Amino acid sequence: MRAPRSNAAAWSCIAIGLVAYGLLPWYAIQDTSWWQALPGIWREGDAANGLIQAAKQGRPWLFAGLSGLVLCMVGASRAPGRAQGRWWLAGGGLGALALAVSGLAIGARGWSFAALNTLFGELQVNQFGIGIGGIVVFSMLVVLAAFGLARLGFFRGDLFVSAAVVGCGLVLLMFIGWPVGKALSAAFFDEDGHASLAAFGARVFTERIWGLGCVAGGTSCGVAWNTLLLALLTAAGTTFLGTLIALMAERGARRWQGPLKVVALLPIITPPFVVGLGLILLFGRAGVVNQALETWFGIPATRWFYGLPGILTAQLFAFTPIAFMIMRGVVQGIAPSLEEAALMLRADRWHTFRTVTLPLLKPGLANAFLVGFIESIADFGNPVVVGGQYSVLSTDIFFAIVGAQYDQGRAASLAWVLTLFALLVFAVQRGLLGRQNFTTVSGKGDAGVPMPLPTGVLRTVQCVALPWIGFTVVVYLFAFAGGFVQTWGRDYTLTLQHFRTAFSLEWGQFGLVWAGTAWNSLWTTLKLAGLSAPLTAALGLLIAWLLARNEFKGQGAFEFAALLAFAIPGTVLGVSYILAFNVPPLELTGTGLVIVLCFMFRNLPVGVRAGTAAFKQLDRSLDEASLMLRASTAQTLLHVVLPLLKPALVAALVYSFVRAMTTVSAVIFLVTAENELATTYIIGRVGNGDYGVALAYCTVLIVLMSLAIALIQLLVGERRLGRRKVAQPVAA
Predict the structure, then answer these.
(1) How far is residue 227's CA from residue 209's CA, in Å, rounded to a whole number?
(2) Which of 306-315, 419-428, 609-618 has the lowest mean pLDDT?
(3) Is there a common fold for 225-284+301-395+458-472 and 511-716?
(4) Helix, strand, or coil here: 460?
(5) How far apart are CA 652 and CA 175, in angstroms?
(6) Residues 428-445: pLDDT tens digits?
(7) Using an 8 Å Cβ cutoff, are 161 and 551 in contact?
(8) Sequence-distant (≥ 6) Cβ neighbours of residue 343 within 8 angstroms
(9) What are all long-range contacts of 629-632, with beta carbons under 8 Å and residues at least 24 apart?
C-alpha cells in the first residue's frame, strides 16, 4: 500500500501534463489571453493544443514532451527505488530539454540561428512564444526530473526538497541569469558586434571609473570609488538606524511602539520623487535651512547639500526601513531565557546586552548591511535628484542607456563592476557568519520577559531614533504640502483641485464614471503589485528555507543568483528583460506579466535575506520533530515553520508590495499605454511641471499603501512565542 501513496505526486504531475497537452493552447497569441483562446484548442490554428500542433501543423518536435510524460508513466508504475528514478530523470529531463532546445532554436521566422539555417536548410514552419499549455507541460517535466534525482539519492531522497531546489534554480536561471547574462554579455563585444576582451578592458579600466584624483589632491575620485564609499556609508548608517529603531520598537516604552512602526515605514511606501523634493525644499539652495542660515547668521546660501551629503541622506531615508523590518524580526526572536541566565549569574544589563543580546543580532546585522549595500550601489533615483557633481556607477549606466549615445556595451561593463562589488560584500558576509549557531527559538517553552535595554543603550536609542523619526515627519510635511497648495513657491492658497484632477468621480448616463486622469494607472498598479507581492514573498521564503535547512552542491551560487537582481541597476534589469523576452520562446514584452516578473525578481532578495536571518534563529529540532511524527516536508513548512516566520513574511510582503507600487527604474522601459503605472504617471506630471497633481497622487498612494500594510499585518498576525509582555524600561 505504500508504493501508490509515495508515487501519488508523480502521477499528479503526469496527469496535469497530459491535460495541458490536450486542453490548453500551446502557444501564446498576442493581444489574446489564454482563456479567450480556449474555444480554438481543438481546431487547427494558432490556438490549437499541443497534440494538434505536433500532429497536424508540422511541429513534430512537440511530441518530445509527450514522449517524456509516457516514460515517466512507466517509471510511476514501478516501485520506489533507483530504477524508478532513472525512468523519471530520463523522461522528465530529456522531455524538458528537448522542448527548451526547440524553443530556443526555432523562432517566429524559422531557425533562430544562421548556423542552423546553413546546416539544415530553411525551415518552413515557425513557432511563436510558448503559452500556458507549453509552460505547464515543461514545468511538470522539470518536477518529474527532480523527483528522479531524489529517487537516485540526491537531496536525501526528499521529493519536495528536490523539486524545490531544481524548480527555484531553473526559475532564477530563466528570469535572472538568462536576461542579465544576455545584457551583460554586451560588455565583451565591440561596436561592430565582434567578441573582444580588449573592448571590455577599454571600457572598464578608465580614469573616470578608477581614478584616484581625490587621493592625489584632485577634486574627485572615479565613479567606482564614489559608489563604494557611498554604499559602505549607507549600509552602515541604515543598519545602525534600523537596529536602534527596532530595539526601541521592541524593547522600548510601549507608547512609542505604535508610532515608531508607522513612521519608520513611511519612506519605503513613498515614491522616490517625494523624498527628494522634501529634502530639496529643506536643504536646497533656496530651501528653508539655507534661507534661515542666511537670514539669522548671514551665511550665504550654497549648494552644499547636492553631492555626497544629499545622496547619503536620501538613501538613509529610503533604505533604513528595510533594515528596520529585518532587524525587528531578529530582535523579537531573541530568547529571554538566555538573557535571564546571564542576569542570574550576576552580570549587569550592559554586560548581558554586550555579550549575549548583541552577538545574537549578528545574522540580522549582516543581512541588513548586505541589503543596504546592494540597494545603494543599484540606486539611481536619489543620485539623479540630489547627486550634483557626485557621479556614481548607477547614474553612468542610466545615461549610457537612455542618453543620445546609447552605449549598451559601456553600460554592461559598468554593471559588471557593480556585480563585482556585490559579490565581494556577499563573500565577506558569508565569511564573517560562517557556520556559527544563532539558534534562539527552539521547541522548549520560554515565557521569560525580554530584558529592558541598559540605561546607556536606551538613551542612545532615544537620542538617535527619536530625532530621526522627527526629521522624517518634517521632510514629509514639507513634501506633501505641495499637493494642497495652488502653486508651490508662488501661490500658497489651499486647494483640492490637484486631487480632483487626478481622482475625480462623476455621474454619467450609465452610472459612475472614473473621470480622473490617474484612475487607470492606479488600478493597473494595484493589480500588478497585488499579484507580485505574495508570489515574491512565497518564493523568497522558500529559497531562504532551502539555503538554511538544506545542503546541496552549488548552494553558494544558488544564493548569489537570488541576490543578483539587486546588484543590477533597475534600468539595466528592465533593458535585459526587453532583450530576453521580446522574441520566442518567451514573448512577454508589452504584457502585464513581464512587469509582474520584473517586480518579483527585483524585490526577491529582501524576502530571501529576511527569511535567512529568521531561519538562523529557529532550532532544526522543530523541523525534525515534525518529520519524525510522519508529517511531510510541505506540511512541516506550512504548519510548523511558517508560523514562526511571520516577521520575515510581513517584511517580504510589505517590501515587495510597496516597492512594486513605487518602483521606477526597473519598469520604465516595460510599461505600455495599456499598462501605465503610478510612478510613470507621476514622472510624466513632473516632466510637465505639474508638481501639485504629482504630489497629490503620492499622498493617495501613501494612504493606500498604509492601509495595505495594516491589512497585511492583520492577515498574517504576530508571531507567538509564548512570552510575557515586554517590561517597561527602568534605570539600571
Answers:
(1) 10
(2) 609-618
(3) yes
(4) helix
(5) 19
(6) 877 776 555 544 444 454
(7) no
(8) 349, 352, 451
(9) 632/160
Q: Is the pLDDT of residue 251 over 90?
A: no
- Report the C-alpha gap between 102 and 171 in whole angstroms: 19
CA dihedral over 233, 400, 418, 601, signed as positive or negative: positive
Please state, as a whole number, how many other Cβ atoms lie within 10 Å of the Cβ of residue 1: 4
Q: What residue type is 568 in one-letter code?
A: I
Q: Which CATH class is domain 225-284+301-395+458-472?
A: mainly alpha
Alpha carbon separation from 445 to 354, 462, 616, 723 (Å, rounded) = 25, 32, 18, 9
Helices (H) and strands (E) in the chain, counts: 36, 6
Contact 412, 334 (CB under 8 A): no
Contacts of 2 (CB under 8 A, 6+ apart): none
Q: Per the structure block, which three cell numbers stand in for 279?
A: 529634502
Euclidean distance between CA atoms 182 and 171, whole angstroms? 16
Q: Map out the domains of the chain as residue ranges.
A: 7-153, 225-284+301-395+458-472, 511-716
Cell reading at 45: 490554428
Q: Which residues contact 221 (CB under 8 A, 6 or more apart)?
A: 211, 212, 213, 214, 215, 229
Residue 441: DSSP 8-state = B
Query: How many other C-beta atoms lie within 10 A of the C-beta of residue 555?
Result: 13
Lowest mean pLDDT among 177-186, 393-402, 515-524: 393-402
* Dihedral over Cα of 147, 149, 152, 153: its sign: negative
pLDDT category at 663 given cuts 50, 70, 90 is: confident
pLDDT of residue 219: 52
What is the CB neighbour count within 10 angstroms for residue 370?
Answer: 24
Count of Cβ atoms closer than 10 Å to residue 277 Cβ: 25
Which cell is 668 given? 520604465
- pLDDT score at 465: 83
> Angle at Cα 627 formed by Cα 623 and Cα 628, nearest 5°?
115
Closest CA to 550 of 172, 161, 33: 161
Q: Which of 139, 173, 154 is nearest to 557 (CA)?
A: 173
Identify the weakest region by mean pLDDT among 79-88, 223-232, 551-560: 551-560
Q: Is 486 helix (H, G, I), strand (E, B) or coil?
A: strand
Neighbour-count burial of 540, counting CB atoms closer than 10 A to its CB (0-12 exposed, 13-18 middle, 19+ buried): buried
CATH classification of 511-716 is 1.10.3720.10, yes or no?
yes
Mean pLDDT of the chain: 83
* pLDDT value for 256: 67
Q: What pLDDT does residue 448 have? A: 62
Q: Which three cell numbers stand for residue 121?
A: 536548410
Best CA proximity match to 560, nearest among 177, 267, 221: 177
The C-alpha cell that represents 541 in the structure block:
521564503
pLDDT: which is higher, 481 or 126: 126
- Looking at the chain, how many residues does it have? 732
Q: Which residue has the cell 578592458?
A: 201
- Quickly state the pLDDT bin for 52 (edges 50, 70, 90): very high
Question: Across residues 82-98, what is the average pLDDT?
Answer: 96
Predicted confidence band of residue 4 (pLDDT cuts 50, 70, 90): very low
CA angle 345, 347, 349 (to 5 degrees): 135
Query: Do the Cβ atoms of 127 and 107 come closer than 8 Å?
Result: yes
- Report how far residue 402's alpha carbon sits from residue 300's, in angstroms, rounded to the nearest whole number: 36
Q: Helices 132-151 and 94-105, interaxial angle, to 10°?
A: 140
Q: Residue 677 has what DSSP assignment? A: -
Residue 228's alpha-carbon distances to 207, 286, 360, 560, in angstroms, are 16, 30, 28, 19
What average pLDDT score do residues 341-362 get?
87
